[in-house]
Amino acid sequence: MPPLYAAAHRTLGGLLRGLWPTTVTGLENLPADSGAILCANHHAIADQLFLGVNTPRHIAFWAKAEYFRSSGLTRRVVTGMGAIPVDRAGGRAVLAAFDAAVPILRGGGLVAVFPEGTRSPDGRLYRGRTGAVRLAAQAGVPIVPVGLRGTDQIRPAGRRLPRRHAVSLTFGPALPVEVGSAADARRLTDELIARIQALTGQEYVPSYAPARVG
Questions:
Q1: What digits encode the pLDDT tens for the residues 107-134?
Q2: Is 40 strand, coil or helix?
Q3: Dihedral of alpha carbons 126, 128, 129, 135, sign
Q4: Alpha-carbon torsion 40, 44, 45, 51, what sign?
Q5: C-beta separation of 61 from 48 below 8 A
Q6: Burial class (CB within 10 angstroms; exposed 0-12, middle 13-18, buried 19+) of 19
Q7: DSSP annotation of 30
Q8: What pTM value is reported for the model?
Q9: Nearest CA to 26 among 42, 9, 38?
Q10: Fewer Cβ atoms within 10 Å of its own Cβ: the N or the C terminal residue of the chain?
Q11: Measured between alpha carbons, how far is 18 from 138 in angstroms, rounded to an integer?
């Protein structure tokens, strides 16, 4: 792990588990030293924290490119934690995030992607976008589905301060990825979402989650 990530892993891990009792199952499905993409449902901003501190390996998260261009602490934190910049301008700028993730995956690292693309507005599980599957195919790695439960109850809509609530993470068996066409990417993405749903018990919505602000 990068030094800053390792320090945050220890410190935040103890803090989060002390405040929010956390159950983690299925870690045997996580590759010990080879590349994989972790794909989880997305309830809250805290999902990245809970996934990061409860996974015993370094995870490269995508972070807004603006963070890397900022001055002071923010830039040092995202750089020190090995984050991957994502430029939201679209086009080739978005593909650069793929280009940055592929060497990490081929080098045996882990990358986390939320296939819904944004946080669920109502706790349900929405249709997945095919980016994670296409990235896995390009890098030649499997996808490990992860089910997050309870993070949406830490600070539900209308509540100013977080509250104590149990959280659980379940790592499911890896999904091998072979993509020969757009239809393959769609089919595997739907299978991935079905596997996540089996881990969370969420109601499924067969449409994309609406874009969120903030």
A1: 999 999 889 988 899 999 999 999 899 9
A2: strand
A3: positive
A4: negative
A5: yes
A6: middle
A7: S
A8: 0.87
A9: 38
A10: C
A11: 39
Q: Give me the numbers of helices (H) and strands (E) for the chain, helices first please.
A: 7, 9
Which of 132, 178, 130, 136 lies closest to 34, judged by CA?
Answer: 136
CATH of domain 3-9+22-198: 3.40.1130.10
φ and ψ at 47, to 5 degrees? -55, -40
Q: What are the sequence ranges of the domains in the chain?
A: 3-9+22-198
**Can you list the residues of the chain whose pLDDT is less than 70?**
2, 4, 63-64, 67, 71-74, 76-81, 87-94, 157-158, 212-214
Please give the DSSP secondary-structure letter assigned to residue 175. Answer: B
Give me 45's structure tokens. 């901003």
Q: What span, in angstroms and rounded, lies between the C-alpha atoms of 145 and 156?
A: 24
List C-alpha distances in Å: 210 to 102, 113, 118.
28, 17, 8
Token duo for residue 126: 């929405």
8 Å CB contact between 124 and 16: no
First-to-last alpha carbon distance for the chain, in angstroms, is 29
Is 58 in contact with 2 (CB distance < 8 Å)? yes
Q: Which position has the token pair 């490990």?
A: 144
Structure tokens at 85: 């910049």
Burial tier of 177 (Cβ tally within 10 Å: 0-12, 13-18, 19+):
buried
